[in-house]
């Protein structure tokens, strides 16, 4: 009997596990653009264009390779607006006896698919996603019995497992596991940052842009200047562009933020890796090769590989280990709504305006903008994890629940009580000033703390430290902050707290 093979929008990999052993003459592949998936959050318009266009290109390729593909394009009047409805309909027309799919990247859909065998009355085989380096079982075996999980130790396991940047004797290349201490330079315009890799939209992409502009007009962001790759060939060219032009400086300026450059020396590969156009291991091997052939320094290559086989795998492991409870965590007891300027970028805080505006235009902001600007502000202001997580899930082209949630709820908001990160990434304006050139262009003064024109991050930082004394005073990595706070004169502390209260009371006007 024929099988129905469901391929999701982030599973655009020809050797995805759902296709292994499939029979092109008998089985049918189903792919669908449905309202339920496109509309469950306010997905950035460029993210929708990227995924719909990449899905259409992938389906075309499968058909050319001899597969039978049922592809449903999006239209608001389609009767079938959920994956379940499309699958049920196809089961009927094909008379198939089973559904085969690869495990999906979010709990919400995983729950639904797990019930299909009862709801649809057929066998549903959910296969592991072999595109990750560590399986879910491998991660949970590693995590077993550890009170706190530290990425660095997991990362070393992944280095050993993949052999990436390892000598024949099982030692890390360059004599160190981690070169992060070399990766904290401020960027002052030199060397110039490379132009990002751009692909001219083809006829399929142009059609999708029209569709998104018409039917998703109220979604965040813009389709203007869409230049992402939508095929594996173009994604590979984007990888080569990164290796040739950005990787050599990736490490040095990994933590830098610029008032004028959106992309700096970042890879801009996560949208492709996460939807299957690029394989994470191939990406890492290409970077390692650049070091072996003397085209990029070790601090850049190690730092880059750590992000992928370390952080990326680590957050995925945590997600599947602790969902669905993880999504409900709010250990700092935050209650504040997300300020509206996260959607408009209309704020006098230059760093926030720049990060949000780049996000709106590009469906992209680099890691330090996400962590130390928009994330840091939400942490200091005490925004509810749920609202800030929803924002991050909506606005980035690379955002999927499995990777967004631990990064935001755990790393940024410290809402999991320090399970993912040993201390909150809270910082005052001083940090942003050290790593960027925003402050000299800002309405607020970074060297002031209590005055009306003082940088909001400064008083909010101390407000955060003070209001969470119970949670953090005993943390050895935070002891110095509390000593600094306690050393300040009572009048100064009072003035900082008063300014913090005033900022929070007028947050929408900042
Ligand atoms: P680079 O900076 O060049 O890094 C190289 C690659 O490493 C990335 O392509 C990505 O695959 C991987 N990577 C780096 N850091 C992480 C990380 N912390 N977690 C997982 N992978 C990582 N990444 C996503 O892919 N999707 C998200 O929804 C997402 N949300 C984030 C939210 C917050 C608050 C923070 C702090 C980080 C988030 N990240 C997310 C991680 C990281 O910011 C992005 O992967 C990165 O900015 C993507 O751009 P790039 O390809 O230019 O990455
Ligand atoms: Fe951001 Fe403060 Fe600097 Fe303004 S002064 S850019 S608000 S850190």
From TrEMBL:
Pfam families: DPRP (PF04244)
Name by which UniProt lists this protein: Cryptochrome/photolyase family protein
InterPro entries: Crypto/Photolyase_FAD-like_sf (IPR036134), PhrB-like (IPR007357), Rossmann-like_a/b/a_fold (IPR014729), UV-DNA_repair_photolyase (IPR052551)
């Amino acid at each position: 009997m024929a099988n129905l093979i469901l391929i999701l929008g982030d599973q655009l990999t020809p050797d995805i596990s759902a296709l292994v052993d499939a029979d092109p003459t008998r089985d049918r592949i189903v792919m669908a653009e449905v309202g339920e998936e496109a509309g469950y959050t306010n997905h950035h318009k460029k993210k929708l264009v990227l995924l719909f266009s990449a899905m259409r290109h992938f389906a075309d390729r499968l058909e050319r390779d001899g597969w039978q593909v049922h592809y449903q394009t999006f239209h608001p009047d389609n009767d079938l607006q959920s994956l379940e409805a499309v699958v049920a309909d196809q089961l009927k027309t094909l008379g198939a006896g089973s559904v085969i799919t690869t495990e999906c990247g979010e709990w919400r859909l995983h729950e639904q698919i797990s019930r299909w065998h009862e709801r649809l009355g057929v066998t549903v085989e959910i296969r592991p996603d072999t595109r990750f380096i560590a399986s879910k079982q491998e991660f949970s075996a590693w995590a077993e019995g550890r009170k706190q999980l530290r990425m660095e130790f997991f990362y070393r396991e992944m280095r050993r497992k993949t052999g990436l940047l390892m000598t024949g004797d099982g030692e890390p290349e360059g004599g160190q596991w981690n070169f992060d201490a070399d990766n904290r330079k401020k960027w002052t315009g030199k060397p110039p940052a490379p132009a990002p890799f751009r692909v001219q939209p083809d006829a399929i992409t142009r059609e999708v842009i029209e569709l998104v502009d018409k039917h998703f007009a109220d979604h965040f962001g813009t389709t203007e200047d869409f230049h992402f790759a939508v095929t594996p060939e173009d994604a590979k060219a984007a990888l080569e562009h990164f290796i040739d032009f950005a990787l050599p400086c990736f490490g040095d300026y990994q933590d830098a933020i610029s008032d004028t450059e959106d992309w700096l020396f970042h890879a801009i590969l996560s949208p492709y890796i996460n939807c299957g156009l690029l394989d994470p291991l191939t990406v890492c091997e290409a970077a390692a090769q650049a070091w072996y052939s003397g085209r990029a320094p070790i601090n850049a290559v190690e730092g880059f590989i750590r992000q992928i086989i370390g952080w990326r795998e680590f957050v995925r492991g945590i997600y599947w280990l602790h969902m669905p409870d993880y999504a409900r965590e709010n250990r700092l007891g935050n209650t504040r709504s997300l300020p509206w300027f996260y959607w408009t970028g209309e704020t006098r805080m230059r760093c926030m305006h720049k990060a949000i505006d780049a996000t709106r235009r590009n469906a992209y902001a680099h890691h330090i903008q996400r962590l130390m600007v928009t994330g840091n502000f939400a942490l200091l202001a005490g925004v509810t994890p749920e609202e800030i997580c929803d924002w991050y899930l909506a606005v980035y082209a690379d955002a999927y629940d499995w990777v967004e949630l631990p990064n935001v709820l755990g790393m940024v908001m410290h809402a999991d009580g320090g399970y993912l990160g040993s201390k909150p990434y809270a910082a005052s304006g001083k940090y942003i000033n050290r790593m960027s050139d925003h402050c000299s262009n800002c309405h607020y003064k970074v060297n002031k703390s209590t005055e009306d024109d003082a940088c909001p991050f400064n008083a909010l930082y101390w407000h955060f430290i003070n209001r969470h004394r119970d949670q953090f005073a005993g943390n050895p990595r935070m002891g110095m902050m509390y000593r600094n706070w306690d050393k300040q004169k009572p009048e100064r502390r009072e003035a900082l707290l008063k300014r913090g209260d005033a900022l929070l009371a007028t947050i929408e006007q900042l």
